[in-house]
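FW: tagging you since you asked about this chain on Friday. Here's the raw sequence from the shared folder, copied in full. Didn't touch anything.
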Amino acid sequence: MWILEGRLILSATDQSDFLACQHLVHLKHASVRGEPIPRSETEMAKLLQQLGQEHERRHLEQLVQPGQTSIEFSEDLARNSTTYGELEAAAAAAREAMRSGIDVIYQPSFLDGDWYGRADFLKRVEPPPGFTYSYEVHDAKLATTAHAEALLQLCEYSRQVALVQGHPPARMHIVLGDSSTVSFAYADFASYHAMVRRRVEEAAFEDLHDVYPRKVRHCSICVFADHCKEQRKRDDHLSLVARIRNDQIRRLEMADVGSLTTLARLPAGTDVPRMLPQTVGTLHEQARLQKEGPLPDGTPRHELLAETAEGFGLCALPVPSGGDVFFDMEGVPFGTQGLEYLFGAVELVDGLPAYHAWWAHDAAQERRAFEDFVDWVMARRRGDPTMHIYHYADYERSALRRLMGRHGTREQEVDELLRGQAFVDLYRVVRQGVRLSTDSYGLKAVERLYAPERTGDVADAGMSMVMYERWRRRESDDTGDASLLVALAAYNQDDCESTWRLRDWLEEQRAQFERVHNVTLPRPVAAEGAVREEQKAVIEETGAAYAALTAGVPEERDARTDEQQAAWLLAQLLGYHRRARNAQWWGFFDRLQMTAAELHTDPESLGPLELQSQEPDGDASIESYTFEPQEHHMGVDDDPLNPEVRTPANWPAPAGKVVAVDSTRGTITLRRNRSQLAYPPPRFLMPGRPFATDAQEAALLAIARWVGAHGIDAAGEHRAARDLLLRRPPRRVREAAATPLRHADESAEQAAVRAVHELDRGCLAVQGPPGSGKTYTAARVALDVVRRRRRRVAVTAVSHRAITKLLEEIRDAAALTPDEVRLLQLIRGRSQRVADGIHVAKNNDEVLAAVRDEAVDVVGGTSWLLSRPEFAEAFDTIIVDEAGQMSLADVIAVSRCARNLVLVGDPRQLSHVVQGNHPEGAEASGLEHLLGDELTVSAGRGIFLDRTWRMRPDVCDFVSRSFYESRLMPEPACARQTIDGEDGLALTGLRLLTVEHSGDRTSSEAEATAVRTVVDALLGRAWTDIHGLQRHLDLDDIVIVAPYNAHVACLVAALPEKANVGTVDKFQGQEAAVSVFSMATSSAEDLPRNLEFLYSLNRLNVAVSRARCLSVIVCSPALLHAPCHTPEQMRLVNALCRYADMAPAWSFDAMHASHRQGVLALNAR
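HL: got it, structure written out here
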């Protein structure tokens, strides 16, 4: 941003700055207008600018291939220009270079009114039909991954390229710090970019959208950071209160608590709407102590908190041991995945600290350093099982888990340390046990309690990254300066020793608390983390299979052949279930350390509960509880635990069995037996222990052994599974192999049935978008195998409900034929509905007997059944329904039960829930793996069901463009579907109703009222269906989708009785004339979980595509302006922005007029 000849010129950088901090654009504007705002450029910013310039120059040399033409423009053009005409001339020169067809253009300029841009590179690509030339933008960035700010700049340059060449570029490219290139579809970000661009113009030219300068991530490199920091101090702003959240600041401000001083003087018992009294009290006490300030010598004041529960605060400190380790890591975010370059640890030798360092300067060294550190710790643990690893904050523990997954090594050892609770996070101890007068609880602030202020070359983590990058640059030039590494090691050693001294200081405070209060504080009970003897043999066998599969396989992905990659991936799948289970166990133990407030916000747990009634049931009790509607993972037949009560074995007490649960009304019923009644009624519920996956793991191990002995592409067993790993086209009988999967004269459903009939130990994908007849097609496939091949079929999915649904469809399809089809499903739980015409087995033996006696044609069961060895090749074909949800590991495990493998599903609707960190590729679902980077399955790899029988064209257009690469088309008859609107116009397609509200997280009464207005306005209108039949709309014709259980409850209270309201899961597979999606949350700052949850493309796809005729989104306008920090977040918000671009807005005035007409229509009926 600068002023040229009195004209304000904006740049792409202003857009990325606006995204990083809206206030920054206003500061820049004020600065260019001449206001004296002090600047202070950080060392990090200087380094990044220098590294960026060097990175661009290296890429230019790589980008221009022999024989290609190139042109280079001056990179100082903008800062040296004195007239607008000079910018126009530069842009004209770039346009001429494009029109002349130069292959690579470096530093081209663009000018569009008040917008000036200078891209790093343009590269010529093949133009689309009808155009003579085409270019795509390449931008060089140092980061390890693409950031949203960088993509915004790319979008601006791509927009300018489109204006010049007459069509938008298909893709845009970021060259990362290691010179690898990541590419993005411009259309996936264009609507979001257009929104940000408009808001930057409004901020610059109309002085809109300014916000208070709260501290954000960008502050670490911002030239105005000190200016804003001083403003916050002058204003005594609430953000100065340690550990306060932005949503808490807003709620306090709405209650007229606008400063730290006001909060410090808040009268006891003051009620702040939508904040727990305990939270208000905690923040008040923190502000009070900060207001008092430090002691005269500069040491922070501190107060010990009265937390005496085992495992919390000072009670979380284990007994000190001679083998204890004090651990800290250093890393940089530059490169492919970043680099953890230093693992540092201090041990005590004769009471004095001894420092150890493990260095890593590339990915291979990182793996070795990680392994060496873990091996060192495990050796100490064998010598002293009571030792612990002390660290400050969760970075170190999370990094070890991440490295374990990234490198696929030392998984068992890290799991043993985690499950054995060997890690002690002293930040958590301080946070729960001590209150400080500091505005930060970072280690540098806390250590002033027991040590003088540090001096040295490295002041903080940001400076450590700068210094390490300086060393790397000098090392690459053969001018390496060892003193830089010495300084970094000294900084890391100081952190390790500070962690040791903090532990000792906390022990002193613990002893003082016991003296003052005359109590004995409990210590954590030692947890067993070691591997049981019966597990060791399996681990050794798995390790041997892993070694055989990875022998001779290069570490770098790009160096592997397809066969090596498939074998490597199979090796990683051997540990998939263990990694997922470990993540569940880690979450399990984390919940045992949560406070009541933390359990209340944990999406897996449920509570607080209030006991309403108890009824005897023999020697048991049926107990009904109520709770505030919330997100949780409790279901009928679950056996939850009580995290606040322990058994004599120090295990969370069993809470009972779930008999019923209603998340909308906030009720849950437990059956508690005699032993469980020995414990008090639960206040919170947490999930029980993870399910064992022995059958799946054994199946994977058997397949891995065979591949290790014979090869990934050899003739013989497990052919379909190996083809899936290799991502091969469907293997078909010889006479069909040369023909296309889908013939020109057949529908997609007919092609799927025929292709499965032609399979010869092959794997076929069938992707079914909304309304395309996925379940219908899968049923016809199964019926064809039974009737024409006279062979058995297995049906599996991640849930019993999905299996039942497909079996019912097979039953109904068979009823239209003269042949009997015998169906059997394994169902153990009492809650599962038993469908007519489907026989039920209660255990594995009943299923096996039916198969051996040839008394069944189709068997339905989960991977726990079909992975078992006794079912190996018991079926001709296995159909994996909702294969976008089932992990690749489970798909491979169940594949051995059949000769042929059919994957049916749609990753764009129901996605795979990943638990744990996995090596690249091992986290995918079966269908995601087969699709790879494609959104839709290619013609050679599977069948795409390309016709929807549900959505009329103007609904389908959004869904198809946003989620299916414009391949999904409506059946012509869908266009008949209409709702009579105003003035004789049809009410169809998309509508957006924005509702202003603030502070709402998981429910919004304002939106519920608006939805009621929408529903009332639609009821009674004339509705014409796909067959041309007309009737009046009623409640059964409208589905209302909400993202949260709390908002479902809010909507139910506002809507007429029997309104069809629920979350996305309820409506999967359903449809109605109208779908209404009410998003509830006021803004991105109010998100209760993360942006990815609310803006999920899968959720948006399902919500919109339930509609046959009309889709309505009701949301706060602020959701369209969400600040994004990653490309994936941009892609998610872009879909909502695209919906807004395509949807006419509905006003409340229009809605109320429609409401009156709807009421009149109902009265007339």
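FW: The two ends are 62 Å apart (CA to CA).
HL: agreed, and The CA atoms of residues 550 and 1142 lie 50 Å apart.
FW: great, closing this out.
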